[in-house]
Amino acid sequence: MTTTHKRSDAQAPEATPPILGDNPGTETIADLASADPAPDLGELLKKAEDEAAGLKDAWMRARADLENVRKQAANDLARAHKYAIERFAGELLPVKDALESALNAGNATPEALKAGVELTLKQLAAAFDKVQIAEIDPAGAPFDPHQHQAMTLVDSGDPPNTVVQVFQKGYRLNDRVLRPALVSVAKIPDASAAGQRLDPTAETPT
After folding, report:
1. What is the pTM of this model?
2. Domains assigned to the chain
3. What is the CB-side half-sphere exposure of residue 65 using CA atoms within 13 A?
4. What is the phi/psi pair of residue 123, to 5°?
5. What is the DSSP string of 28-47?
6. Which of 31, 87, 90, 116 has its C-alpha lying 20 to 30 A from 133's C-alpha?
7. pLDDT tens digit string along 14-39?
8. What value does the mean pLDDT of the chain take?
9. How many H helices and E strands in the chain?
10. Mean pLDDT of the 109-121 span
């Protein structure tokens, strides 16, 4: 008996290779390179240099402005020192004019000269008031070492440390003493003498 082998003409279908791009998860190297390009180092360096140049320019401008402000302040301070007494000097000019007029009055009577001097003194006092210069005339006031200078201590019926006499007036500019007043001051009573007068054990003369 002859066995006949049946040949199958049908062949298994060949596998179709995948088409690139059909699968979302499959990309080529070229596609990756085009989607995420590497940063251009040259452009980054140029950008950094531009930013540094801008910051340097801003710093130079700020430094120049600060220097101008400093110079202006120094000039203003110098002018303030130079012309600080300009107002006071202007107030003193009429005083000088009055003194010169008094000296040129050859036939003036003593009464006229005295009146002229009094008027000149009033002008000077007005000039002092305008610049806040005040007299220190402490007669009868308590002694103040910050405004008075004691020249001598004297026996007096006034309370101790009272200004008895003013030898020379002082002057004060606002709160600053230009010149202290020269004064004499009442002495503190002698302690031993006062003790003898007040000692209760002292014998009373009979």
Report:
1. 0.55
2. 132-191 (2.30.22.10)
3. 6
4. -65, -40
5. -HHHHHHHSPPP-HHHHHHH
6. 116
7. 555 555 555 555 555 555 445 445 56
8. 79
9. 5, 6
10. 89
